[in-house]
Amino acid sequence: MCSETGSRYTGMLLLPLAIAAIIANLLLYFPNGQVLEPAKITDLVWFFHGFLGAGLLVMVPALMLLRGGGGGCCVHRCGMLFPVLLAIQGTMGAVYCVVISSLGLLSGPFCDTGSGNYTYPFRNDSLEDNYLFNQPTWATCQEPEHIVLWNVVLFSILLGIGVVEAVLCLGQVISGLCDVYCGTCIRKGQVSAPRTREFFSHS
């Protein structure tokens, strides 16, 4: 966590991913580019898994990592715990996005099948008969137009973003916990004081 170069690279990856997650979540509110009543939008979109989960909860640790983990994070172990807690927060947000995105893909969109009433035509499908593996059934949803493709693409994007963010944040958690446990700080050109004194004592 105190390795400035590695932290900044991770932050540079996490920040655009968080922004992309927010944009993808926003697009889910406008199926096929249409403005619909809130009651006609897929319910899982309102869990804000892109805005909150893979977005804001990941953006905070990403910005912290871009600053190199903080000015004096290695001065004492308590100070090193703060970046770890933020990375845990990011991991939880990313996992939340993965869970909701998976449910969104499995249950399918909220749409009009031609009767004039909106429903979830694919929600009770078994895993083997799921609409994702039977593309001709996508025509069941007539309104909004192309709603199935719209949902599949955006939920898949959010799922992928969540997985990558979870891996990156979890890596920062492990790295940070190792730093806290070992009491080390890996900064370029820095040598721990105790080892330096030990070296000169044996000279």
From TrEMBL:
Pfam families: L6_membrane. Its main location: membrane. It is found in: Membrane. One of its GO terms (cellular component) is membrane. It is a multi-pass membrane protein. The chain crosses the membrane at residues 12-32, 44-66, 78-106, 147-170. It comes from the Eukaryota. Keywords: Membrane, Transmembrane, Transmembrane helix. Belongs to the L6 tetraspanin family. This is Transmembrane 4 L6 family member 1-like. The lineage of its organism: Eukaryota, Metazoa, Chordata, Craniata, Vertebrata. The gene is LOC102425037.
